[in-house]
Design the sequence.
């Protein structure tokens, strides 16, 4: 029931005792956030076991991570130094729409709207006439990435309609310890141990305490399940159903191996290269390059995947290839009773668009937004779950697009994703784009209009119609404007420092 | 070649503000398109045209189509609204337009006030303070200035604004013609033609801005009834002489409410009630001697863009008189239509996308208007008592659950009302969270109280530094003229 009595809200007399189970990326991000942002409302106790390795997903991130570290009061330079981070302007996709194709999905926009009509409509008109350069030439983020250059965007200037953002590529195995130091400095407690049993309230089913192998019993009011795919609390204990999306996103394994950085520039972008049974990532850091092959085990054996990865590396691997298993999908509800799942325990979407850390960050933000007192209510759970579900579902559609929008027909894997039945929500978006050049617009969600345009055009879905107002300007005038924009972006990019030099000067 | 050919001919039906704005907007956007406007006799219940406000989004749209605030003010057709006072329950509260001061001491202001504040919330809202003192100046954008946290809407004078807009429309090349009778010829889900006083008129796109009668609706047009959640179905509208003010005032009565809406040289006075709870005679006791009775039927079309007919204003959604929300919705929907820009040969997909977004906007504004009746109906009187067991629309129900739990609001697609305005309204209506926001609760009480007190003092001191509104308005009219 809403409070209609007009009384001052209760400041809890005792803090909500939060027990975080699992000390990977998600666990320490949760602990650091709660300890930093709501120290008077929550006490934090994290349990982790050295016997369980961390997945360390998400070497590549999204621009949203910047807001996260800023909100926690973390200095960007020291964060970057400790995680061997490089800057990231977007993702290069190779061989997705067709073998030989490539495009960059930038963190930013293309061109500038004119008379209320989006730039891409004008571009479509001139493209149809064979008069337009690739659309990436009209994006500052793409142009800078292609030139291996980087400078921080200047928030004051947007003269070329050239807004771009940036994120980081970093060593994920360094990120969790960095978050841990931040959390422990702000009072988060840590206990080393394996959870062997879970004590529940007989009546409500809520979790009362977790029991560790050494006999320790840790009580709490709210339990955050960051135990990864084991899903110790949300899955094994609460038995919350898993919504399986593997029929749309069939990749269920990855094999990962770092290699030495090549001489020459450091790319300010992540590369995703389509492979016969999935795709391969390449993430350049300051001290090495991270690589991995994400594949469908129904279409490729683990040994063959490892061989294919090693064979594709630019230099010998620095470690034995490591195998990861996963499944695409999400919990039907990510918060049940007094158990909230964050990270892989909550859901998994493969790293094609670097969303793993974002999804953990988003869930943490929502947890703080819906943080309960000692007794969680339906209002807390429903509010949290509605937002988390919508985020997963919209990202899912965007990822499926990368597979489905292809003409590749040279392997059973690509035959499957090209011909599969896609979700209605995605089919409607694609049909609208094909016919009208319009992108379904949402106020919330991770990937907005420029991202959809990047992937649609990058993977060969070119609309047959566009906004009729784009046909109004005289062709010569429009071509002059397009050329001016392209030249301006090229000149601005040429004035940016080399990415590697910029990293060295910032260090 | 573009498979989407531009529209050759658009016909707008409705000579009120909604229809005129739509005609001018399409004319400016499509210079090669013939736009004509057919004006049947005005529908008296077209509240988007008769109680017309323009919010900030609407102002931006009008500016894009060459309708400037200065020109409307200079024509005596617009005044500014900086806030609205509601004497709704025990204590009157005032809401300021826009978001107000959103953040203080690193946390949401309203959450800090919930956790640590005393006094009324509108004491820390600069726009509300201006409204109470009947003062207004335009906001500035200096980050340290309280005036950067003030916002405003325009109230249009329905008669002067529509004649000014009509003049503007004709100068823009729009043919405006009166008509006694207009009826559509529907065939295969499209309007093949309009029959206007016996003459057939064809077009690629018809815009139905004819008011709640929705003259272009077909027998297959489906409606969603809002009468349970927007219970006012009668409005007595009168006029009294007055000076301009930037504040509207609403007083709850046993049967509904009364309102004073000041324009440049007169104030519109409304008495709103529900026919099943009060007779006309009973309602008239609270109204001026001469009033016009307007019958209201709150509802919206399920799919306001059907075939080649786009309904706007009360023809698409009738949200009632409270807050003058009809024109802001109509302009927001027009904005969506201009963004998507229909073309000849479009299949149903574009209309579906329009309908998805436009009805989200309509449902959001419906939920906001319904809050004034359903959020906390503790007043006496049969009208208010009957509100207590009504079910809130889903968007309001979830807002009440979340706000009543922790003072937060769920995310909203196609938001029509700024979050800060929602917060002010729910606080004013008496909805209080059970638990304190943990971020606000983690600010020390000493620094929270100090920051709130400092803000309250600054807000209280602001109005005295500003001119009286009639002087400010007169200066603006003179400067433009």
Sequence:
């Amino acid at each position: 029931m809403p409070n209609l009595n007009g009384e001052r809200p209760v400041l809890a007399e005792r803090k909500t005792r939060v027990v975080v189970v699992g000390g990977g990326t998600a666990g320490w991000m949760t602990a650091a956030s709660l300890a930093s942002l709501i120290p008077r409302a929550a006490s934090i106790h994290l349990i982790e076991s050295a016997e369980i390795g961390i997945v360390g997903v998400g070497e590549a991130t999204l621009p949203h991570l910047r807001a996260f570290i800023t909100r926690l009061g973390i200095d960007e330079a020291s964060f970057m130094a400790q995680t061997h981070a490089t800057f990231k302007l977007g993702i290069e996709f190779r061989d997705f729409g067709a073998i030989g194709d490539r495009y960059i999905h930038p963190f930013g926009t293309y061109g500038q709207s004119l008379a209320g009509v989006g730039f891409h409509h004008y571009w479509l008109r001139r493209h149809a006439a064979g008069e337009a350069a690739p659309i990436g030439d009209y994006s500052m983020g793409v142009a800078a990435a292609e030139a291996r250059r980087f400078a921080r965007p200047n928030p004051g200037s947007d003269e070329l309609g050239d807004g771009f953002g940036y994120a980081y590529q970093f060593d994920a195995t360094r990120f969790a310890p960095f978050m841990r130091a931040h959390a422990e400095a702000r009072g988060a407690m840590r206990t080393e141990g394996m959870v062997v049993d879970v004590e529940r309230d007989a009546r409500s089913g809520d979790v009362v305490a977790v029991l560790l192998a050494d006999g320790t019993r840790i009580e709490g009011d709210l339990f955050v399940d960051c135990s990864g795919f084991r899903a110790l609390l949300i899955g094994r204990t609460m038995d919350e159903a898993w919504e399986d999306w593997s029929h749309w996103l069939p990749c269920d394994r990855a094999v990962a191996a770092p290699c030495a950085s090549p001489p020459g520039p450091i790319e300010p972008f992540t590369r995703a290269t389509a492979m016969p049974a999935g795709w391969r990532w390449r993430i350049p850091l300051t001290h090495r390059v991270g690589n991995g092959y994400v594949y469908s085990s129904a279409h490729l054996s683990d040994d063959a995947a490892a061989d294919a990865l090693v064979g594709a590396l630019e230099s010998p691997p620095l470690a034995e290839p490591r195998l990861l298993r996963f499944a695409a999908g999400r919990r039907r509800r990510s918060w049940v009773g007094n158990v909230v799942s964050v990270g892989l325990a909550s859901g998994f979407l493969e790293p094609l668009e670097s969303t793993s850390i974002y999804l953990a960050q988003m869930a943490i933000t929502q947890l703080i937004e819906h943080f309960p007192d000692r007794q969680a209510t339906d209002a807390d759970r429903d509010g949290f779950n509605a937002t988390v579900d919508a985020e997963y579902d919209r990202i899912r559609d965007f990822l499926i697009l990368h597979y489905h929008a292809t003409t590749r027909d040279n392997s059973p894997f690509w035959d499957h994703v090209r011909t599969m039945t896609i979700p209605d929500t995605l089919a409607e978006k694609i049909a609208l784009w094909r016919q009208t050049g319009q992108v379904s617009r949402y106020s919330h969600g991770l990937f907005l209009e420029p991202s959809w345009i990047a992937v649609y055009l990058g993977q060969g879905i070119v609309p047959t119609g566009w906004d009729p107002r784009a046909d109004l300007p005289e062709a010569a005038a429009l071509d002059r404007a397009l050329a001016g924009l392209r030249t301006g972006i090229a000149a601005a990019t040429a004035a940016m420092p080399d990415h590697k030099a910029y990293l060295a000067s910032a260090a | 070649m573009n498979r989407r050919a531009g529209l050759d001919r658009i016909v707008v039906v409705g000579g009120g503000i909604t229809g005129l704005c739509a005609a001018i907007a399409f004319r400016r956007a499509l210079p090669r398109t013939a736009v004509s406007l057919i004006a049947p006799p005005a529908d008296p219940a077209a509240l988007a045209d008769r109680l017309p406000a323009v919010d900030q989004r609407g102002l931006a749209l009008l500016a894009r189509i060459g309708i400037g605030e200065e020109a409307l003010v200079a024509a005596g057709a617009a005044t500014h609204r900086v806030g609205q006072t509601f004497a709704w329950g025990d204590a009157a509260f005032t809401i300021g337009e826009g978001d107000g001061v959103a953040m203080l001491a690193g946390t949401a202001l309203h959450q800090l006030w919930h956790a640590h504040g005393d006094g009324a919330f509108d004491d820390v809202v600069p726009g509300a303070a201006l409204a109470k003192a009947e003062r207004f100046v335009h906001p500035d954008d200096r980050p340290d200035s309280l005036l950067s946290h003030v916002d405003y809407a325009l109230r249009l004078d329905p008669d002067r604004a529509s004649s000014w807009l009509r003049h503007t429309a004709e100068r823009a090349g729009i043919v405006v013609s009166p008509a006694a009778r207009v009826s559509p010829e529907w065939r295969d889900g499209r309007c093949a033609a309009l029959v206007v006083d016996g003459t057939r008129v064809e077009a690629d796109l018809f815009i139905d801005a004819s008011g709640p009668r929705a003259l272009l609706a077909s027998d297959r047009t489906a409606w969603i009834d809002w009468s349970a959640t927007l219970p006012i179905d009668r409005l007595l509208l009168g006029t009294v002489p007055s000076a301009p003010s930037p504040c509207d005032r609403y007083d709850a009565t046993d049967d509904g409410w009364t309102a004073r809406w000041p324009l440049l040289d007169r104030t519109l006075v409304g008495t709103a009630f529900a026919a099943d709870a009060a007779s006309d005679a009973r309602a008239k006791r609270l109204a001026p001697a001469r009033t016009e009775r307007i019958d209201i039927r709150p509802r919206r079309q399920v799919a306001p863009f059907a075939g080649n007919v786009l309904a706007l204003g009360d023809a698409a959604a009738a949200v009632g008189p409270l807050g003058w929300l009809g024109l802001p919705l109509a302009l927001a929907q027009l904005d969506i239509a201009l963004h998507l820009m229909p073309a000849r040969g479009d299949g149903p997909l574009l209309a579906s996308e329009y309908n998805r977004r436009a009805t989200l906007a309509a449902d959001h504004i419906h939920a906001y208007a319904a809050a004034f009746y359903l959020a906390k109906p503790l007043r006496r009187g049969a009208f208010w008592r009957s509100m207590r067991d009504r079910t809130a629309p889903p968007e309001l129900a979830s807002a009440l659950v979340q706000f009543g739990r922790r003072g937060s609001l769920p995310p909203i697609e196609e938001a029509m009302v700024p979050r800060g305005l929602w917060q002010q309204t729910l606080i004013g209506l008496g909805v209080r969270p059970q638990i304190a926001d943990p971020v606000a609760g983690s600010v020390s009480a000493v620094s929270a109280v100090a920051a709130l007190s400092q803000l309250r003092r600054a807000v209280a001191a602001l109005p005295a530094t500003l001119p009286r509104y009639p002087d400010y308005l007169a200066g603006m009219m003179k400067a433009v003229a």
In short: The radius of gyration of chain A is 24 Å. The longest helix of chain A spans residues 378-404.
